[in-house]
Amino acid sequence: MASFVVSYHPLLSPAPFLSSPSPSIRCVTQFKGCDGRGVLMLPLKCISKQTPDSETASPSSSSSSSSSISAYNWCAGLGGLGFLETTYLTYVKLTNSDAFCPIGGGTCGDVLNSDYAAVFDRISMMILLHLPGVPLPLIGMAAYGLVTILGLQLAGKNMPFGIDETNGRLLLLGTTTSMFVASAYFLYILNTQFPGASCSYCLVSALLSFSLFFTSLKDFQFKEIQKTVLLQLCIGCLVVATLSTSYNTSLSGLTSLAEIDLEPFTVEITTQSSPFALSLARHLQSIGAKMYGAFWCSHCVEQKQMFGREAAKLLDYVECFPDGYRKGIKMAKACLDSGLEGFPTWVINGEVLSGEQELSELARISGFDFDGSSQT
Questions:
Q1: Which terminus of the chain has a lower count of CB atoms within 10 Å, N or C?
Q2: Taking CA 170 as the corner, what is the angle to CA 164 and CA 171, rounded to the nearest 5 degrees?
Q3: pTM (2 decimals)?
């Protein structure tokens, strides 16, 4: 006599008559012979309704991925705005131009041209930038550029140099953390060293840095944040220590310069004046052009050497420290009123020229036309 036995595959779904069947399980019918030896197994596919969880699993995953990509795109967009701002300020700084300040007026320029607008003065001299430190906008341009590139690469899931997405996210978070801490430090400097001053570029940069930090942080789960908080604290402490050390070094150098006591002296001009230099010097004198300088300024001496001994005496030269250079002595009023940024400075027909100038450039600016002879 034969019997039917219904059995269920352990890795598949229950039989159709169960109350909560799953579509992924099959039921198997066994036909057992009387002698107990013959066995026939008939697989029967059990079809049931799909559960809500299975229907919503894919949209949830898609939503998570979309949110992640959106955060990276935000970082790329904000980083791009910061890159444009700092590129403009870097150009202004390197060309000694005046930045357009929509809010704050003169106080904006005072902040951007202050001793706090540059760091690492020794490094700057080592790489022959001839600047009082590395301009902060240049560093900001590099940071914003890195954030923009990382945001675009993470959004496209195409990280360079074999970096996986996890390390890319950590690199993005580390960069925005350093920018966040640096911006907070600069706001502290702005509030304590420039009370009452307004710097729209500083505030916009701080807003972008804060937004980038919180946007990149949003992409991390709470457990991930707990694992990276020590790294973020280390980065923040390193940024503060680096900036503080740089400012203390540069400002102490300025303090030592202020303690110098120099009596006024003259340096003999040894070069012979050419006909061109003599004619140009007379022309500059006739149109009221002025050369502002200081007795201790080597560049001022070199500018006079270009004209030669005879022509240099014809120049309308204004000495900005006629009483010597020491602590407590200010520049001559004529120099203060001219708003000089360095020595030598030429003022020709209302145009201000900073630094040494070639004689041909002075001739062009002043409208001098030397007929016949050539410059020697």
A1: N
A2: 85
A3: 0.53
